[in-house]
Amino acid sequence: MRPRTTGAALVALTLLLSSGTAASAAPPDGPPRAVERIARQTLPAGDGWAAEGPGTTGGATAAPDQVHLVRSRADLVRALGGDNATNKSNATPKVIVVDGTVDGFAADDGHLLGCADLADPEYSLPAYLAAYDPAVWGMVPPTGALEAARVRSVANQTRQTQINVGPNTTIVGRRGAVLTGLTLMIDGASNVIVRNLTFDDARDCFPAWSPTDGATGNWNSQYDQISVRRSEHVWVDHNTFTDGDNPDSAQPVYFGRPYQVHDGSLDVTHTASLVTASYNRFSGRDKLMLIGSSNTVGPDVGRLKVTLHHNLFDRVLQRLPRVRFGQVDVYNNWYRLAGDDFVYAIGVGVQSAAYVENNFFTLGAGIAPDGLLYDWGGTAVTTRGNWVDAHGALPRPVDLVAAYNATHDPDLGGDAGWTPTLRAAQPVPAPLVPLVVGPFVGAGRLPL
């Protein structure tokens, strides 16, 4: 039985105010005590899949000497355990408060590195483009010395910009906190909370040319803003995800395809499960959220359980989310979609079981309700209580499956085979979603 409704707005206000905002003195090398109290908050009971079983507490039990205020990449690595290569196994409970901008391209002495600093001596983009131009190389995957040099360059960047997070960790941002040019890698690190941060421009210096990806090939990048792998009990809340002043739309075109330097915002893959993403703003990006990275039937079966609620998908293009295998609860989200490059909202992948309820879709010119779902090899999706505000028309209820089936073959079934029970509150009606999402969503909304 679902919990009695208290209203999504009341839940949001409770999260914002439950710890108070009174000023207090800061301990040495740590955040103010009022900030620390909020930083120690845990996922509310029943709030999505991450609340299953013991719930998600992050670093709430951290000892006083494991509460850190960080202002640089070097600070962040030290707070996470001291060695980026081994921090992923550091299970000591810890609370990390980010103040200001942390740049993943900053060296330990603080100076900023560029892509040229991370490139292998044998790699250059002009040489790569000349060698693997399809007119010269053909439509087969790159091999040989230049591709090997690109791979070594990627390894250099991974050591620099992929920040490994260990279990029992909370990372929160003070107002205005930004993580730029980096990936938070949550791999084999359960019980993690990430809140109130702006993630900006997790760019790949060395994208790969994949000539067999699609009919004409594609450039593919490696780095997500948050990657959750082989982990459970992860809460991602009140964050903003953006490409900042380096959008994919501004990238050049090589081999007739956009030079893609960004990957996902929040990907949940490699058997990860029990994740709740709430009150996040995804703005102006292409690929957002991949849940399950392979069509291979195997370890992901029974995993990839994710809840998405009260998020804003703002002028974004695809994977909102794209789902394989998992039972994914998508409710009370606001989709504000526009632009000629829009692809789809919800991808129905192999053995996926998405439950899509009481979401509100605001659609710009050229986007129709029949294009909100995409068949990636799935068979069924439950959709109920959703509304659409299409360009030039009055807001109205929409049956997403019926709209899709009217213009596509084969048909999708309308029953994903399960009903969510882990919800902190009963969903509000879809027409109210912009009112309860808009004022509360994204970084900077928590009193930090």
Automatic annotation (TrEMBL):
Domain Pectate lyase: 118-367
Organism: Micromonospora humidisoli
GO molecular function: lyase activity
Species classification: Bacteria, Bacillati, Actinomycetota, Actinomycetes, Micromonosporales
Name the UniProt record assigns to this protein: Pectate lyase
Pfam family, one: Pectate_lyase_4
Signal peptide bounds: 1-25
Cellular localization per UniProt: Secreted
Key words, A-Z: Carbohydrate metabolism, Lyase, Polysaccharide degradation, Secreted, Signal
Family affiliation: Belongs to the polysaccharide lyase 1 family.
UniProt xrefs under InterPro entries: Pec_lyase, Pectin_lyas_fold, Pectin_lyase_fold/virulence, PEL
Principal location class: secreted
